[in-house]
Amino acid sequence: MHAYRTHTCGQLRKEQVGSRVRLSGWVNRRRDHGGLLFLDLRDHYGVTQCVIEPGDAAFAVADRARAEWVVTVTGPVVARTAETINKELPTGEVELRIEEISVQGVAQDLPMPVFGELDYPEEIRLKYRVLDLRRDRLHKNITLRSKVIQSIRRRMIEQGFTEFQTPILTASSPEGARDFLVPSRLHPGQFYALPQAPQQFKQLIMVAGFDRYFQIAPCFRDEDARADRSPGEFYQLDLEMSFVTQDDVFAAVEPVLHGVFEEFANGREVSGLQFPRIPYDESLLKYGSDKPDLRNPIVIADVSDIFARDDVAFKAFKGRTVRAIPAPAAASQPRSFFDKLNDWARNEMSAPGLGYIVFERGILNESKGAIRPLTESEKIETPGEFIGKGPIAKFLSPDAARALAAKAGVGPGDALFFAADAKSDRAATLAGQARLRIGRELSLTREGKFEFCWIVDFPMYEWNEDEKRIDFSHNPFSMPNFDREKFLALTDEDKDTILGIKAFQYDIVCNGVELSSGAIRNHDPDVMLKAFEIAGYEREETETKFAGMLNAFRYGAPPHGGTAPGIDRIVMLIAGEENLREVTMFPMNQQAQDLMMNAPSEVSAKQLRELHIRVVMPEKKAE
To answer: Cα–Cα distance between 462 and 456 in angstroms, integer?
Structure first.
């Protein structure tokens, strides 16, 4: 018999009844029932109930065992009686009668229990991550992560992609976040950077003649933590393809993502192929975000023109961008529903509030400005006649109210909320957040579904208001969707034209979560130099920073493109979690600290001397 186990703790079934077996694992739970002592033994594969009576030879050792002790038990497999069968466990029809037990590892008093799913503070969970990882939910999430990666890798290979590894020590690159820098011992005063993404290398792989590349790539960004973004490092499915259009990239990526989500959907619905394609500007207008959650059916409308009409006397919206957010069937909601949304806009969104109109069916008394309810006969004869009520409605003519309803697609029984601001981007953001909140409040968001879409036609550039200059809007390596010769001829006088240029750039979004950004790359050296020049980079600076890529392009570069869906976010969605910490084995805390390994940490003076570095601590602020 094996020294530690003949079976795992998730393996025994009725077929093994009568067999003498050996199991090893952690004591998940200890239950003393007076006449019997039960030890639920747990390993990676499952849990088996083990039992021993007080008079048995091994009882004294078994009685000492406590939660999370590691033990090896030996004995016969017996069938449980009908009333003691545990249908929640795959091993629930049997138990092991302990004849021998040996202790492999003793556990001290636990800072947090493993059995059960009680929530504990982040600091405790991350400091004692090994214990946290033993807990059932987290253990299953990490195992799911491994299976998802295996599935992705298999599907990519089936699609004709080849896996390559790119360097970890590289040069700094303007990817949009801060680099992690690594000092060079051999080259004093110079630094490597950990890759924010393998962007340049995967493009160079295409120039080198390898057609379809992928890897499960580690990426490093010195940025603040969020629920959907880990500080420090994360992993992505990095891929690149040669001789492709945007449609070719979509056709290769969609089956992989759709297949993975369908494989692990566990009864949830996955939107079908092909994923909807929504232009960036349209997404901001209809959903108030470039990461729309399409499970929510609410569509925002721009009603700025209606509030600019002469028959609208509501001065607070004059000259502003006004977005209308429908609230289907909300006319029956109590006044507190509207007040709560208004308070939310003021307190959480720092907005003046959310105005609203409730639409009801009725007849307007023009002289008194009041609504008379329809009679039963009128309801039949004039089913489409309705009028607005509420704080804003009195400032609108009946025609203006009807125009609002028509443009927003609402009718009797619905309500319409308004987000307004002097700046269109702020109005869009408020409307987008209100859309999500109204969808949740009215239970409109369809749970149990994965809704994918592509966001396309991103702007190539944006105006940097702080520095009063043109800057890249997203990925600087994207190919502009603009005539080549006209692009090369652009000057500082063409600001409006430049800010209107779209890029061959796209995002994959699922349930309001951005899974990846991608693009058809700028493989033309002249266009690339011009693109960076427009964003304020001198040609010499671009030549120096991207010498490897530009030089490679000058020896013949194929048209190419790709994307990089985030592994962590994919697993988070599939696992039904709201925080990446729950699907990452050893995450950092919100301050980018590893509490378990005590990183970052100080280093010795000797190490600093070897690296030719002197630490200059920030000055303390005067109190």
So the answer is: 16
**How buried is 542 (Cβ within 10 angstroms: 0-12 exposed, 13-18 middle, 19+ buried)?**
buried
Range scoring the smallest mean pLDDT among 35-44, 168-177, 178-187: 168-177
Q: How far is CA 541 from CA 499, 538, 546, in A?
A: 23, 5, 8
Q: How far apart are CA 414 and CA 333, in angstroms?
A: 10
Q: Which residues contact 246 (CB under 8 A, 6 or more apart)?
A: 456, 504, 506, 520, 561
**In contact, 325 and 300? CB cutoff 8 Å:** yes
Question: What's the start-to-end Cα distance of the chain, in Å?
Answer: 70
Dihedral over Cα of 63, 68, 70, 71: its sign: positive
Distance separating alpha carbons of residues 277 and 509, to the nearest angstrom? 10
SS (H, E, C) 94-162: EEEECCEEEEEECCCCCCCCCCCCCCCCHHHHHHCHHHHHHCHHHHHHHHHHHHHHHHHHHHHHHCCCE
Give residue-wise pLDDT tens across range 555-609.
Answer: 999 999 999 999 999 999 999 999 999 999 999 998 889 999 999 999 999 999 9
- Cβ atoms within 10 Å, residue 600: 11
Helices (H), 492-577: 495-499, 525-534, 539-545, 547-553, 567-575
State how far the Cα of 507 lies from the Cα of 249, in Å rounded to an integer. 12
pTM score, two decimals? 0.90
State both tokens at 193: 């950077």
Does the pLDDT of residue 227 top 70, yes or no?
Answer: no
* CB contact burial 344-357 (16+ within 10 A = b; e otherwise): bbeeebebebbbbb
pLDDT band at residue 385, thresholds of 50, 70 and 90? low
Angle made by CA atoms 15, 16, 18, in degrees to the nearest 5: 115
Least confident of 169-178, 237-246, 350-359, 414-423: 169-178
Burial 282-316 (b: 16+ CB within 10 A, else e): ebbbbbbbbbbbbbbebebbbbbebbeeeebebee
Three-state SS at 572? helix
287, two tokens: 């959903």
Per-chain mean pLDDT for the chain: 92
What is the H or E stretch that residue 49 is in? strand 46-52
Q: Please report how many Cα atoms fall inside a 13 Å half-sphere around the Cα of residue 220, on the Cβ side.
A: 15
